[in-house]
Recover the amino acids of this structure.
């Protein structure tokens, strides 16, 4: 198995994603510069967090025009696994690989803190190692993580169990207090209809080692390894 | 092109150059300077660049030690050894004046500047801290008459605006560039009204052999300009920073730069990529005094000359004069001396990162900084004279004698509080913005990127795992300016001790110090005296703790129309934690753990936050510190930590034992109570709970280890006593027959939401 971490010029979680895949899970991982045009060699493609192009206009709005994006869309159509974290989620929405948009946090402030997430569905290549209703402790760090979509889209997402993670409290209740950014229906992560493209605002790569205070992010990577038929790393 | 104005005494004075200094310039040049040259001298000889009023004092700092790889003043930042061939470059720098005028951009570009200082050394920046000071953001307990309180309200609104703007600016820059901001300190006091302090710290990691130098070596080597285009922003910012702030300072807004963190991110990656090749002979960032400073300093360090042609400099605006180009402080620019034959490597890397670059000049052997414009000489100055021969002054110093009310008189001045007043005082202290949780601030900073923040913000010291090196670095910034205002020498001595104590509490051994000296106008003898006393105090402290000063920054002229700021010599200290198991945080962990006070109960109430916050008095003398006792405490605490006895350790500072114990209960993942009994102390309860005597730490240890821990402390000759037990939902304190009770959740709410409530 080979994983790619795409580097846009302003990516800044690229090294963290690389570290967790390569060093924590022992996956052969490569950086792919955004000006490259082929992603054929990879089984998993990660769009890491950061500020891909400074994002003064709208997060991810320019990144979608990067040369690598054409190949990314092709790989998505082929069914390859694509994981967009934070800014990566924003880029996937801008590129219309996922529906909806991520707008400014309701508080108007950047927010960096640990949040609790409820796993809404385990029928996906990214959550199959989790249990439905499981509570995950994952950090968020974003200024524009307020998921917004029209009613038809939200209905469609619910109907087809495409909402994989929601912000919740410790008891699993979906409350306004648990929602760090004003996201519609407390949505934290969604997948596409084919379920091979997953975008989420929280950072599983910041919660994959005990020393960082939570290992709950491991379940996302373990699910991916399950899906690709690879036994869990130690 | 416009013609330059003639040099008149008015023009000279407007550049902040004294008649004596002008004579000195003439003798260096052997002629009258032209307008561009006058501008160049004015920024290089400003306090900000030349330290002309402080350099003699700064020489008092210890700067050497076995671990020092790059000394203070040698390069853009000092570098110290952390073992196994790895080093860390770190430095603190101020952006006070720009932040007073334009808080968002002022603070943002401050962060940008300090990050450039670090990667210029060849180091990858890994985390930031900041030390901030503002006027009050909450109404004081002693509000005056109606008209007065109206005035106070408008001041508070301004202070909040500055605070919010600075925090947003730091967040904007640090978050985008992907360097976590993991700690620091924030104080609120009237003396910073209109003149906030924004001191930013950055630390980077590098291999010893990767240390880059800012010297123009190699005659004939090409000089490259890389990074953002030059514009008219930040014109002569260094000179602006070297004057008092006045009502008219708003008109200086063009002297504040505009930051572009995305450009800086590209510049950082491109420079580190380039430094990994053999292409670079020397590298220097364009910070204060921009192109001027980088050309003359690289030439001076290299013992060479540098010739550049301004026609080749990438520009953002048309029609810029040589004066404007040389004095611009546009951000995100670097000067690189390239080994001849490696030009293409530079071009390839900067093309890859879509950044402007241009070959603008060449290294010469004549020692001159020569500036051409389309081939015509517009400035020609001996580089080393300009960079290193600024005049040095010994300013007049006059002691500022504070009203030194004795401890006994202080206690007479304030009534002995009722039990209810004691209970309320602790809650009020915890809710005071200086002491309250800073979560409203650090939630806005990405403090987790780079996957290394192993102690989240809010403990005594920040702890970061540098993965490249496999090392745990602890860092803290400290200065109690209230102490410094009443006794600058003792205040500075305590600042160093507190920093070292915070590191000890986290399990670290201190390595080195960077300092940021924030004072008022040095031409006022009392301000200069404060500077000198503080420097001597810091120097003594750094010697005592064996932590050489590896660099820093001096910011003078911090005044507003009502006077100077409290003297604020901020200490940034870096330490190393040997073993992951030694990482210690301040919060109580488990029911049944035993609470031990290391050090005395203390009694000194002078200069305490209790007096200031509860009684409106900045009065008395700060507590005295004894370095022998302090050092013994640190050694003993580390011995306990290394023996795996310690579950939490928290130093005693603002607000005394009361605040320390409360913070132990409420600053962890979950709040937890404690039962404390001090027995008979013979002290008033407010004196017992809120005195700020030094050299004290509260630790908690597992019940089974309590006796061994106390025995170890006794064997080391360090005063210690068992004062209670962790557990329950309340903090209960008994002393001298009195019994005080606080609900831990109530204290947590008061402390955690205090700043958020002020700001929303």
């Amino acid at each position: 198995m080979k994983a790619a971490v795409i580097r846009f010029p302003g990516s800044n979680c690229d090294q963290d994603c690389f570290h967790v895949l390569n060093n924590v899970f022992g996956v052969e991982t490569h950086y792919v510069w955004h000006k490259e045009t082929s992603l054929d060699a990879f089984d998993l493609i990660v769009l890491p967090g950061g500020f891909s192009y400074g994002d003064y206009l709208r997060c991810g709005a320019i990144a979608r025009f990067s040369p690598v994006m054409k190949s990314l869309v092709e790989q998505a159509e082929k069914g390859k696994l694509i994981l967009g974290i934070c800014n990566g989620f924003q880029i996937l929405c801008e590129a219309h690989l996922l529906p909806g948009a991520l707008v400014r946090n309701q508080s108007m402030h950047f927010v960096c803190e640990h949040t609790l997430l409820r796993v809404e569905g385990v029928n996906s290549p990214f959550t199959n190692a989790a249990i439905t209703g499981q509570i995950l402790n994952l950090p968020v760090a974003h200024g524009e993580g307020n998921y917004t979509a029209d009613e038809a889209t939200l209905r469609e997402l619910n109907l087809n169990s495409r909402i994989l993670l929601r912000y919740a409290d410790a008891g699993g209740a979906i409350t306004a207090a648990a929602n760090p950014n004003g996201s519609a229906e407390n949505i934290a992560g969604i997948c596409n209809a084919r379920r091979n493209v997953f975008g989420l605002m929280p950072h599983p790569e910041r919660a994959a080692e005990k020393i960082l205070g939570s290992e709950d992010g491991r379940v996302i990577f373990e699910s991916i390894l399950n899906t690709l038929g690879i036994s869990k790393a130690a | 092109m416009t013609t330059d104005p003639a040099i008149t005494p008015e023009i000279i004075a407007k550049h902040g150059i004294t008649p004596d200094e002008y004579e000195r310039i003439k003798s260096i040049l052997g002629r009258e300077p032209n307008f561009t040259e006058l501008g160049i001298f004015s920024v290089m000889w400003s306090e900000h660049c030349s330290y002309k009023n402080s350099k003699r004092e700064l020489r008092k700092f210890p700067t050497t030690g076995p671990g020092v790889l790059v000394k203070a003043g040698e390069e853009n930042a000092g570098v110290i050894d952390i073992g196994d061939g790895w080093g860390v470059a770190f430095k603190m720098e101020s952006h006070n004046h720009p932040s007073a005028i334009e808080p968002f951009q002022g603070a943002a570009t401050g962060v940008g500047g300090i990050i450039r200082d670090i990667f210029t050394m060849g180091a990858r920046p890994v985390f930031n801290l900041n030390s901030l000071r503002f006027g009050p953001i909450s109404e004081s307990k002693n509000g005056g008459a109606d008209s007065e309180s109206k005035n106070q309200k408008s001041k508070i609104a301004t202070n909040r605006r500055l605070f919010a703007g600075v925090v947003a600016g730091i967040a904007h820059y640090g978050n985008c560039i992907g360097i976590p901001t993991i700690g620091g300190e924030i104080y609120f006091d009237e003396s910073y009204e209109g003149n906030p302090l924004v001191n930013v710290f950055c630390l980077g990691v590098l291999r010893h052999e990767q240390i880059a130098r800012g010297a123009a070596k190699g005659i004939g080597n090409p000089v490259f300009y890389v990074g953002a285009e030059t514009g008219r922003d930040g014109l002569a910012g260094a000179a602006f920073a070297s004057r008092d702030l006045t009502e008219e300072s708003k008109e200086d807004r063009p002297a504040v730069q505009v930051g572009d963190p995305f450009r800086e991110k590209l510049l950082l990656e491109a420079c580190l990529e380039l430094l990994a090749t053999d292409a670079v002979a020397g590298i220097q960032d364009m910070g204060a005094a921009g192109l001027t400073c980088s050309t003359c300093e690289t030439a001076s360090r290299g013992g060479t000359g540098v010739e550049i042609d301004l026609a080749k400099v990438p520009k953002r605006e048309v029609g810029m004069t040589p004066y404007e180009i040389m004095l611009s402080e546009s951000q995100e620019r670097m000067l690189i001396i390239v080994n001849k034959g490696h030009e293409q490597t530079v071009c390839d890397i900067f093309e890859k990162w879509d950044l402007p670059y241009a070959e603008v000049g060449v290294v010469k052997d004549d020692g001159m900084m020569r500036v051409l414009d389309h081939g015509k000489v517009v400035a020609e100055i001996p580089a080393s004279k300009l960079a290193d021969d600024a005049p040095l002054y010994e300013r007049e110093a006059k002691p500022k004698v504070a009203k030194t009310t004795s401890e006994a008189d202080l206690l007479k001045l304030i009534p002995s509080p009722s039990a209810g007043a004691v209970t309320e005082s602790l809650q009020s202290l915890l809710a005071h913005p200086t002491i309250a949780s800073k979560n409203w601030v650090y939630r806005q900073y990405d403090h987790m990127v780079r996957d290394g923040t192993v102690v989240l913000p809010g403990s005594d010291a920040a702890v970061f795992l540098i993965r490249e090196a496999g090392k745990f670095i602890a860092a803290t910034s400290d200065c109690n300016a209230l102490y410094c205002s009443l006794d600058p020498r003792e205040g500075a001595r305590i600042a160093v001790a507190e920093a070292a104590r915070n590191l000890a509490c986290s399990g670290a051994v201190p390595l080195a110090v960077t300092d940021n000296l924030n004072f008022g106008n040095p031409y006022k003898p009392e301000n200069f005296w404060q500077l000198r006393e503080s420097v001597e105090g810091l120097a003594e402290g750094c010697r005592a703790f064996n932590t050489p000063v590896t660099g820093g920054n001096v910011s003078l002229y911090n005044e507003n129309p009502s006077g100077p700021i409290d003297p604020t010599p901020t200490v940034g200290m870096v330490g190393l934690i040997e073993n992951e198991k030694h990482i210690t945080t301040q919060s109580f962990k488990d029911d049944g753990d035993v609470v031990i006070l290391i050090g005395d109960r203390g009694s000194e109430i002078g200069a305490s936050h209790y007096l200031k916050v509860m009684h409106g008095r900045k009065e008395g003398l700060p507590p005295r510190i004894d370095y022998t006792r302090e050092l013994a405490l640190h050694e003993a605490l580390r011995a306990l930590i290394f023996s795996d006895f310690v579950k939490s350790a928290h130093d005693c500072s603002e607000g005394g034992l009361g605040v320390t114990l409360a913070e132990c209960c409420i600053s962890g993942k979950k709040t937890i109570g404690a039962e404390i009994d001090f027995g008979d102390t013979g002290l008033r309860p407010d004196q017992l709970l809120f005195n700020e005597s030094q050299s004290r730490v509260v630790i908690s240890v597992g019940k089974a280890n309590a006796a061994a821990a106390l025995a170890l402390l006794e064997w080391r000759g360090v005063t210690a006593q068992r004062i209670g037990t962790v557990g329950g939902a309340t903090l209960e304190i008994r002393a001298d027959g009195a019994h005080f009770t606080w609900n831990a959740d109530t204290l947590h709410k008061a402390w955690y939401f205090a700043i958020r409530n002020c700001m929303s």
